[in-house]
Amino acid sequence: MKMSECKMLQVSLLCLLSLMLLSHVTAICPVSQPCQCDISIHCQNRNLTEVPPAMSSDGEDFLGLYLSQNRITDIKSDTLQGYHVSSIDLSHNPLVHLDNMAFVGMEKYLLELNLEDVHITTLPSSIAQLINLQTLNIKNNPISGIPSAFTANIGQSLLSFSFGGTKIRYWPTALNHLVRLKALDMSHNVVTFMREGAVSAFADTLQELRLVNASLSPFQAELSKLKALTLLDLSYNSIVDIPPGALTNMSFTLKKLTMSHAHLSYLPEALYDLNVLEELDLSFNPMQSTNADIIGTSDNSLLRNSAATLRFVNLSSCGLNAIPRAVVNLDQLEVLDLSRNRIVVLNNHQFSSLPHLRTLLLNDNPLMSIPYLSFSGLTSLTYLNLARCYLTYIPSSSLPEVQNLDTLDLSSNQITRIPDVAFPGAPKLSAVDLSNNSLVYIFDYAFTDAHSVRTLRLSRCSLTRLPSSLSQADGLRTVFVDGNPIPCDCDLSWILTWQRQSGIIPNIVGRCADHPTMTISTYVSTRLQHDCGSVVG
Q1: Distances, alpha carbon 299 to alpha carbons 249, 353, 378, 431, 498, in Å
Q2: Could you count the other beta carbons within 10 Å of the beta carbon of residue 532?
Q3: What CA dihedral angle connects 152, 158, 161 and 166, to 10 degrees?
């Protein structure tokens, strides 16, 4: 048998096997339409008002029973009987009644239970007997407390516990039993204070902790005892500082730290202890521009020990008026967000120590001018956002420094002209956004050397004519001119010459000012030759 025939036979056998498996699964599906089965039972978002009764499944086990986003109001003690699954999702149902015994009989095999947003005020006692339960989500329910005994039997198995958005107003003692816990989400609860010993049960195991909007102030000393933490999210709290040494126990574990919308007025010294940090988000904090690590010149950056691992830094909306020294020499950094600050000046070689940076967000800063070597050294940069920066010109002289730039956003500035050779030395530039600039004049050779540009946005630029210089961008595939008062008349006849010479013209997105129901592309393809062919000759 030839190799090609052998491969065809293998493919045929696989297809046949898949069909047989599908028909087998369908045949034993324990519920009727509108639910569907594969390795799980899918009844989510089916407008159900009750849980479909389980018919005989011939002893077959299914991975999950998914009933989320329905209109189910009642779960009786026997409603879930007959379902032999390891995961149940009842989230986002307006339950009026959830029987205490609803999960009896599932003690040994139920591993995951999702009861998010089901309107319950107390926890069914049968959950406490699920001795192999690993994941429990009871978020967004008006529960006011978790009895200490509730977790006594599941403490050895529970790995993930989410109860954010409840009415709990304290750190529950029930957490003391969770000796294997790896992920805890208590966001949007009024925690305020963490008592001594609050994290003792899982100080060596907890990897992810989310305490978003938990009314915490100041930074809680108990957090410093966590030794395995990889993710810490303390956003939307009134924390003004992280004390020096507070992160020492997680120096070689913490990879993602988020403290956005807090009350930090400077970069915390505790950051210096982190050695494997990959993502840092301190956005929306009222940073003081006088902080030594923001405007200082010393090489002792607070993020120096994370320089080999840090990939993402977000310092947007922090009131900064200079590029923070802390982000200098982060030679593995890939994304830097400094948007919505008060940065006025960029210096030459400002980012030269960031060779792996791919995304730089400087939008919504009052820059006004950009020195021509500002982006020198950004050899990996592909996306640059300079929108809403009060720029009066296109920073053409800076573009040759970013040879790999793919997308340039200059929208909503004060640019009035596109000069000759506006986009030089950027061989990979494929998308340019100049929308919302009041363009007065576009030079005849504006798009010379813009051969790689595929998408050009000139929306809402007060243009009264489509510039013929677009024909120089021979790679252009789409140009957006919507929101401009451009009439469809013989002033567009140059497009016919362009089409004749290149064989293809871009899709022109916009409407005729004199025929609002007609798009410019439609006019060009159906009427321009007829109306203006004689003009071109």
Answers
A1: 25, 12, 20, 37, 55
A2: 18
A3: -30
For residue 336, list its beta bridge partners. 313, 360
Please state, in angstroms and as integers, the Cα–Cα distance from residue 11 to each residue in 2, 18, 23, 49, 203, following that order.
14, 11, 18, 43, 51
pLDDT digits (tens, 9 = 90+) for 141-178: 999 999 999 999 999 999 999 999 999 999 999 999 99
Comparing C-alpha atoms, which of 226, 217, 310, 220 is closest to residue 272? 310
Burial 300-337 (b: 16+ CB within 10 A, else e): ebbbbbbbebbbbbbbbbbebbbbbbbbbebeebbebb
CA atoms within 13 A on the CB side of 125: 3
State the distance between the two ends of the chain, measured CA to CA, in whole angstroms. Answer: 64
Asked if 511 and 520 count as a contact pair (C-beta separation under 8 A), the reply is yes
What pLDDT was estimated at residue 4? Answer: 53
Residues in the chain: 537
Which one, of 437, 398, 399, lies nearest residue 418 by Cα? 437
* 279-281 vs 441-442, strand pairing mode: unpaired
d(CA 407, CA 3): 46
* Residues β-bridged to residue 160: 135, 183
Give the distance between the most distant pair of CA atoms in the chain.
Answer: 90
Question: Which amino acid, residue 39?
Answer: I
Q: Where are the chain's structural domains?
A: 416-537
Using alpha carbons, select from 267, 243, 391, 369 the residue that is nearest to residue 318: 267
The alpha carbon of residue 336 and the mean position of all alpha carbons in its chain are separated, in whole angstroms, by 14
Q: How confident is the model at residue 368 (pLDDT cuts 50, 70, 90)?
A: confident
The pLDDT value given to residue 535: 64
CA geometry: angle 400, 312, 349, nearest 5 deg: 35
CA angle 322, 424, 457 (to 5 degrees): 80
Q: CA-CA distance, 481 to 493, in Å (whole number)?
A: 17
Strand positions, DSSP E, 144-201: 160-162, 183-185
Mean pLDDT of 389-415: 96
Nearby residues of 537 by Cβ (< 8 Å), 6 or more positions away:
none
What is the identity of the amino acid at 386? Answer: L
Task: Find the helix or strand (DSSP H, E) in which 308 lies.
Answer: none
Residue 328 confidence (pLDDT): 81
CA gap 51, 80 in Å, rounded? 8
What's the topology of domain 416-537?
Answer: 3.80.10
Q: Identify the pLDDT of residue 16.
A: 42
- pLDDT one-digit tens code per residue, 477-514: 999 999 999 999 999 999 999 988 888 889 999 999 99
Nearest C-alpha neighbor of 214 from the set 176, 186, 246 = 186
